[in-house]
Amino acid sequence: MATANSHRGIVDLPTELIRHICSFLCPVCVQGQRPWSCPECINQRPGCHEWFRGQLDMSRLSRTCKRLRNVVQPTVFLCYPDSGRWQVRRLLRLARTLMQRPDLAQHMRFLMFREPCEELEPWDRKFVHDSIIQLGLPAVPDHWNIDGDPEFRLLPLELVLAHTPDLEYLRVPLDYDWNLHLLSQLVKTRPPFLTKLKSLEVSHYFIAGDRFDVNMDAIDTIIRAAPNLDSLCLPSPNCGYGSATPMPSLRRLYFQDDCSISPEALTALLDAAPKLEVLALRWAAMADSYDDCADRRTTDAWDAVERRRDSLRELRLDIRSDTEQGDGERDSLKDFENFLSALFAPSIREVTFWQPDKEEMSSAMLRFAKVVAVGRYPNLKSVVIAPSEMSGWRELDEALNAEWGESKGELEEDFGKGNVRFELKWESPYWSACRLD
């Protein structure tokens, strides 16, 4: 004979069991085992489309009854994705909910935003206007959303950030003249309010004919609000300052694509991160497409890296120059031998050399291998020579491979004496900040 307990449904289960069941609605992408298909899943970052679809299913489930609403809604608010249409309007709906339900705001961990260009309805503009006044800040102009003023372009996102104190991951777009009007005022009047933010990824919102850099002042504003930042991913920042905002907890610094950061700005950023362990830079500051590059040399980047030689564990440095090397540049390449043998931190774990020229670099590489062989770098595990993805070559040409092939045996032997794996790759390793963990 059936009992009442035999017909119990999901709503009658313990809270933790319901949440565990709901976790299967947001599975790891089925393609996640192939590293080129879903980097978000591999690195456990909130960017997987399978996860987004599961989140929609959980949202529907949370609306079926009061019990499931109370149990499932916190999981729904864990992540706000940047997919779909009308992103700014959706972001304002989120802001309204977070302000009305602080209990849900404390569950938000991941926030991604991509498309700030959207004109709002009058009632939405009024909501932003009134919300800023409620924060005790001066009112913004009535036209803030109409004429595309870069000072107010990210106001809806800033309003959300002001109400998500437990946020851990943020992806935000910036351009060279955009500012963070609301946050810049909050950091002046409040103690840091994004203390749990660990990862900040800034994307470049490019418009045809636009510049290729982003406003570092806006990035500094977020950094000041997030003193415990662990990972920072940037395009080319347009900074020319002598010092950077301190980042005492930063361990990973990634520069996206062809970064044209000046040597002075790079030095300032590295000085501001005393615990930096991982640096990835594809440096195009000497390329023809950028101004004021005539006096720059390869060693400018090396000199900046030297600032963190005692803390670095992993270095990925790809330097691009469209101009023929003059005598000064050739002389600077001679310093590469000293750079390898003397400037690398003893704690370095992995080194990748992108498209090194055999004629210029062979003696330096051989000397480096012999230094490794006698145990100078006890933590080093891997040395790789690979074609530069930035150069446009997907494979080493036969001549270059043959040149390095002549030294491959000797390099393998010497590196092997130091228990270091040496590789000469035929294809460029996939370069992306989300892979460098």
Automatic annotation (TrEMBL):
Record Gene3D superfamilies: Ribonuclease Inhibitor
InterPro entries: LRR_dom_sf
Annotated organism of origin: Parachaetomium inaequale
Top-rank lineage group of the source organism: Eukaryota
Name of the protein described by the UniProt record: Uncharacterized protein
